[in-house]
Amino acid sequence: IMNIMLVSVTERTREIGIRKALGAKKRDILLQFMIESLTISGVGGIVGVIFGFIASYLMGHFMNMTVSPSINTIIISFSFSLLIGLFFGMYPANKAAGLKPIEALRYE
């Protein structure tokens, strides 16, 4: 997630510079990139939960066992996914929010 977000910040440096030049605050830029990071990790968490359901069903079917994932396990795994997105999205978001408008506009 951190690598994806760092590439995203690098590719959108001019956009960040334009937004800051038009009056966007550091908090606005930070929020934009944190939402993006949480969205990426949230989608990954949903995909992981779906694959977990499929894998547990298949394993239970082939082993002749009854498998029922608990709601607590699902909540913990999805929350962990969001926590990873929050933690590893913070550095790129701070990097984007800390750009000076004139330097960001000169980039490329």
Please, could you describe this protein's structure?
By secondary structure, this protein is an all-alpha fold. It has one domain. The protein is 82% helix and 0% strand. It is built from five helices and no strands. Helix 1 runs parallel beside helix 4. The longest helix is centred in the middle third of the chain and has 37 residues. It is elongated and about 65 Å long. The model has no long low-confidence stretch (mean pLDDT 92).
Quick description:
The chain is mainly alpha-helical and 108 residues long. The chain is built from five helices and no strands.
Structural key phrases:
single chain, 108 residues, mainly alpha, elongated
Choose one word for the global shape: elongated
How much strand?
A: under 5%
Biggest beta sheet summary? none
Mean pLDDT: 92
- State the secondary-structure class: mainly alpha
Number of domains: 1
Query: What order do the SSEs take from the amino end to the carboxyl end, as H and E?
Result: HHHHH
Fraction of residues in H or I helices: over 70%
User: How many strands?
Assistant: 0
Task: State the end-to-end distance.
Answer: 24 Å
Oligomeric form: single chain
Specify Rg, calculated over alpha carbons: 19 Å
Please give the count of helices: 5
Stretches where pLDDT falls below 50 for ≥5 residues? none
